[in-house]
Amino acid sequence: MAPVWGGYLVLLFAAFASASLWWGAFLFTQQPQAPELFTDQMNRQHAAKYELILSQDGSTLHFDGTITFGLTKRVRTLMAETPQLTTITLSSPGGHIYEARGFANLIREQGLNTHATGACSSACTLLFIAGHQRSLAAGVNLGFHSYALEFGTALPQLDLQKEQAKDRAFFRSQGVSEDFLIQMFDTPSTGLWSPSLSEARLAGLISP
Q: Is 136 helix (H, G, I), strand (E, B) or coil?
């Protein structure tokens, strides 16, 4: 009888172990998921406002969407991982000016070319003008207007005239004419001025 009782014990032990495993798996699936960190949530929401698409050969990075928080950091990582990158293509209504400055500095430091494939307005023009060689797709215009605070009077210490002067100096360093620099911020922030192709070429916005 010993072998028989031994077999029963083995089966009993196996059944108990199996039940324990199934019960553990059930409890694991019922555990509430850890709440998403606020910083991770913000990063995800910001990243959803734009697309960064790298060409198959790694020579072109296309940016499409709103310039927002975290963009410069992501672009810096992509550039470090893609040494063969030569061109940034743009399609953007603008966005956060400080992020645009960070992205623009990366473009200029790397000596990359810029090409607007869609409307490139407001802060996007900083990215465009940072290019070593600059070009526009057929029918595409650049859009300019004066700066405005996104949250009204939330930052009373911010001098918009000084901020515009900083970016005007950046455009000047990229070879843009003084006549254009004088009028580039004349249009109110609620409007948009788009120079013609000939005006853009004459002003030095587009490479010869």
A: strand
Q: Is residue 14 part of a domain?
A: no
**How many Å apart are CA 131 and CA 128, to the nearest integer?**
6
Q: Where residue 131 falls among pLDDT bands split at 50, 70, 90?
A: very high
pTM: 0.79
Candidates 187, 178, 113; CA nearest to 148 is 187
Q: What's the CATH number where 132 sits?
A: 3.90.226.10
Distance separating alpha carbons of residues 42 and 35, to the nearest angstrom: 13
The two tokens of residue 196 are 């013609």
Its domain, for residue 54, covers 38-203
- Give the integer Cα–Cα distance in Å for 82 and 106: 13
Strands (E), 55-154: 60-67, 87-95, 113-121, 134-136, 142-143
In a domain, 25, yes or no: no
Mapped onto helix, strand or coil, the DSSP state of residue 170 is helix
Q: What is the dihedral of CA 119, 63, 111, 117, to 10 degrees?
A: -30
The helix/strand/coil state of 134 is strand
Mean pLDDT on 101-118: 98
